[in-house]
Amino acid sequence: MQCNFDIILLQETWLYSFEEPMISEMFKNYHSISSSAMKSYKHCRGRPYGGTAILIKEDYKSIILSVDISDPRLLTIKFSKSYGELLLINVYLPCYSLQNEEVIHKYLVKLERIVSQHDGPVLVIGDFNMSPTHRTFYEIQKICDDNELVIEDMRKLPPDTFTFCSANYQSKSWIDHAISTNDLILNVNIPYTCTPSDHLLLEIHIADLIPKNGMKQNFKHVTHRKIKWNNLSEKQVMLYKNRVYDKLTEKNWEFCTGNNCTNRDHHLLIDSAFQEICNIMVQSSNNLNSSGSKKKTKIHVIVGWNDNVRQQYHDYRIAFQQWTSTGKCDANLYVNLCVKRKIFKAALKNCKKEKNRYLSDNLALSFNGKVFKKFWCYVKSCDNGQRQSVPNSVDNVSGEKSVSEYWADIYSKLFSTPQSDTHAEAVRDYILNGENNLNFVPILPKNTISAIKNLKNNKAVGSDNLQAEHLKYAGWSIILPLTNLMNSMLCHSYIPQNLMKVVIVPILKKKGADPSKSLNYRPIALASTLSKIF
To answer: What integer pLDDT is reported at residue 125 of this predicted model?
Structure first.
């Protein structure tokens, strides 16, 4: 099939789970995400509900952040956008009947929970099986009002619109809808000339759904992932320590310590030993974060919650618990629940609107009281802790690779010094034949231990892909190899190039400066961790 749409939403696919690959075969240029309502191991009698699917062009797979296919009636996808995360929900609600009233209410509550927990633009499209004149449609309208959403098809299409034709009852109804954050949907159209089923196509045009240049570009330095050592358990730290011990004890870490040795072959041994020590610690720390570590729950902070919303939320929770304790049968308690929920939603909505004022008040209080730690916490919370986005071009140079090469050329000219073999030979002759040579003072293990203890934790990874915690949690087994290696470097007056290599990162001099001008940046050098103890 040939389609010109970026995203296609399907309801009532009527496929078993083992038949879902058929969608990808039919739409070869699309990435298929589907959820079947018909289990492969279970024979379905009668007319089960169909299931849902979302088709996304292959070129746009890279902006998908997460997918939730656990519920075939609410298929959910999050996209990465320049203005935040876009939540897309493909909806297929049950047909209305007295028996299905409770089920429909359950799914609407679930839909509201998903939408309210998302902080960003929302797009909810699908078969709601409810027309605007239906007596339960007010629940959908209430969800939109509480979460500042708009039913765009009702706003942009004429009142006599219909999306469903019943051949049996010779009737028409408007049961497919498009709900979104305000101004996200530019236009809604129904091509009545195309009727692939009893439902008509709903064609929706979105504002900047997929940026033409793809995802935003970032400058990348290829290093290993930074490990969150504070999140690791004692068992994981011990696992890392044992891995390092096992690998270090397999090698002989004795080096030449002859005073002023000029054997060039020993330089190669020093290079090899340095790289091997780095590799051992990096490899020993692999998969630590995924081996049973406790995942910290991301807390969504709402400024002003304690002062303006907390009590209303507490009252709402009490009302909900009272209603559920009676088996959800008491009408008076349900009315009370609705009132409390309305008060809570109004307080929450007002709190979000007044966010900037609460931040300003907190800033003023923390500054007047000279509580500078709180002051900077509030400053960071103003932009949600987000870093300055990386520009697509610098000094009219565009493209990730071209910009990276441009920065490398600038800093190589600025920091690189010409190497002179003549000067190097003169230094070697002075070391070998000089009369004023100082006696070699070896580094002791206690000096290495002291240097490691003085390293600061949670710092950026350098060219050796190590953090201070790699050395601190490696235990005693790392002390002797490092001490012998550093003594051998002193004896040979030789330092490996990889040890002295630094990663230079350009950062803006001040917030608000033009990021497309190289003069507005200053370089930050990330030294290797092992160079800090030498």
So the answer is: 92
